[in-house]
Design brief:
Length: 366
């Protein structure tokens, strides 16, 4: 992605530029509004990070002028400012800003917001897919975002909405295989829906391969959409922290498991296997997992399968602290960790589940 940073503070330009380039983005920096406007049409950024208090024209005037260019009418512009008055922020959004971050900002929070905006652009590229594929991607993305909002507001994810999203996803994977999910999300930044859609589509094929019945395959796909939903309650500042996590921060991130279980069990129709996968996707048969250090038979097959797809999906997504691994690298990492994972399941996962390109599978949905 092309990202334009406009800020008169050279330290901010340097620091932001460093992290964004490390994430593979093309970065152009400008020290004020005029120089940004002079460069912007040669660069055509996908996202603009715009300071407000700058010499010459300020950020709000710069924003107004950016919006006069047809090519930049809908470009996400994230304002970064020390002005914290609510009215000021609302007025800035009314002027066309997409988002607003207060200075001094937390780098993880800003990188998380940038990821969210980059991923909002993905939908444009999905228009080139088959309608059924686009529908599965859009509904899956909306479901994860809606579920996240619900639990942020203290409510459990909706069973009926999740049921619809699961069915639409399964229909599309039955017809087209699961690789369209991967190509649609290839340019996606690290975010819950990217991870979740990859995991759920893999879990569906994995469950078929292992021999679960139709209902079980359906429920496990639903589990793939929801087992990490507790991450919605983990602050971006931690999830996207570019540096090493402190012990306390790691504990906080790991709480996403108990957050997820707490909310999923409030939905009376939620299948028990979905709860099981949420509770156990970080447990490992050798006892090295969390949160309960379960081992052996206490780590159920759906938990073990969720652990494998969760790890595979996470490894193939770019993180703030490392590049994305290729499929082969991710497989090798999982294989080298055979002690922690269920080695029989891993062997079943390697082929043909993840490479099941256009298999004419029967319809397994209900
Ligand atoms: Fe997780």
């Amino acid at each position: 992605m092309r990202i334009l940073i406009v800020d008169d503070d050279p330290d901010i330009r340097t620091l932001l530029g460093f992290h964004l380039k490390k994430l593979g983005h093309s970065v152009l920096a400008a020290a004020d509004g005029y120089s940004a406007l002079n460069k912007i049409l040669q660069f055509i950024p996908d996202i603009v990070l715009l300071d407000i208090e700058m010499p010459g024209i300020n950020g709000i005037e710069t924003l107004k002028r950016i919006r006069t260019f047809d090519a930049l009418k809908n470009t996400p512009v994230i304002m970064i400012s020390a002005h914290c008055e609510q009215k000021y922020i609302i007025d800035t959004i009314k002027e066309g800003a997409s988002d607003y971050i207060l200075k001094p900002f937390n780098m993880g929070l800003l990188l998380g917001k940038i990821n969210t905006w980059i991923n909002s652009l993905l939908k444009e590229s999905w228009k080139g897919f088959e309608p059924q594929q686009t529908q599965a991607l859009n509904i899956g993305k909306s479901l994860v975002e809606l579920s996240s909002k619900l639990i942020e507001n203290g409510k459990p994810p909706s069973y009926s909405d999740t049921h619809i999203a699961t069915k639409v996803l399964i229909d599309a994977v039955d017809r087209y295989g699961n690789l369209f999910i991967y190509s649609a999300l290839d340019d996606g930044e690290d975010s819950l829906f990217v991870h979740t859609l990859k995991s759920a589509s893999l879990l569906y094929l994995f469950a078929i391969k292992i021999g679960f019945n139709e209902q079980e395959c359906f429920d496990m796909t639903m589990g793939g959409l929801l087992y990490d939903i507790g991450k919605a309650l983990v602050p971006f500042a931690l999830t996207f922290k570019p540096g090493k996590l402190e012990d306390g921060e790691l504990v906080e991130i790991r709480k996403h498991v108990s957050y997820g279980v707490e909310f999923l069990q409030r939905e009376p129709n939620m299948p028990s296997v979905v709860l099981d996968m949420c509770r156990g996707h970080h447990e490992r048969p050798d006892g090295s997992g969390y949160p309960n250090g379960l081992r052996d038979a206490d780590v159920t097959t759906p938990m073990r399968m969720a652990a494998i797809t969760d790890t595979y999906s996470a490894l193939t997504i770019k993180k703030v602290y490392r590049a994305a691994y290729t499929s082969n690298e991710a497989f090798n990492i999982i294989l080298d960790s055979e002690k922690a994972f269920d080695k029989d399941l891993v062997r079943n996962f390697i082929t043909p589940v993840a490479f099941d390109k256009t298999k004419n599978s029967p319809h397994f949905y209900i």
